[in-house]
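C-alpha cells for chain A. Residues wanted.
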C-alpha cells in the first residue's frame, strides 16, 4: 500500500498469509511505514510463529500466543486503539469469518500484495537467494 491507507491502523497477518509472501521481512518493514502496529495471529503453537518470524527477521508488535485467532484479534483490538483493524489472511480458510466475528476488516493476502506491491512466493526460497547458498567449503 506504499503511502496509502491510514497510519492509524493495526495490521495483523495470519501466519499462512505471511508464508505466501516472498519476503515477509520487507512486507513488515513496508507495513510499518503506514501502520501503527503490525503483528502475526495464528492458531499454530507459539513456537511455530516464533520460529517463522525469527527466521524471517520479523519484529512484531504483537502475536497470538497460545490463543486462537478470534480471541487474539479481540485482545489486540482492545489493546491497540486505532481507527482501523485489518486482518490479512487466506480467503479459502476461516479467516474472513474470524475477522467478521470480531469486527476486523478482512483483506485477502493476494489483494494486499497487489495493492502494496508485495511479491508473492516462497519466503524460504527468497531468503536462500538473498543469503546465497549456505554450502561452505570450510564446514566439517
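Reply:
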Amino acid at each position: 500500500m506504499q503511502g496509502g491507507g491510514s497510519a492509524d491502523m493495526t495490521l495483523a497477518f495470519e501466519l499462512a498469509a505471511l508464508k505466501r509472501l516472498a519476503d515477509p521481512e520487507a512486507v513488515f518493514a513496508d507495513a510499518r511505514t503506514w501502520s501503527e502496529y503490525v503483528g502475526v495471529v495464528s492458531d499454530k503453537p507459539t513456537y511455530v510463529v516464533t520460529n517463522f518470524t525469527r527466521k524471517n527477521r520479523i519484529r512484531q508488535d504483537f502475536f497470538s500466543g497460545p490463543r486462537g485467532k478470534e480471541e487474539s484479534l479481540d485482545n489486540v483490538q482492545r489493546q491497540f486503539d486505532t481507527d482501523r483493524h485489518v486482518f490479512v489472511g487466506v480467503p479459502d480458510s476461516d479467516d474472513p469469518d474470524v475477522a467478521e466475528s470480531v469486527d476486523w476488516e478482512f483483506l485477502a493476502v493476494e489483494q494486499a500484495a497487489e495493492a502494496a506491491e508485495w511479491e508473492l512466493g516462497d519466503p524460504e526460497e527468497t531468503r536462500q537467494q538473498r543469503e546465497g547458498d549456505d554450502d561452505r567449503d570450510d564446514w566439517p
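Residues 9-117 form a domain with the Rossmann fold fold (CATH 3.40.50.1000). The longest helix spans residues 24-34.
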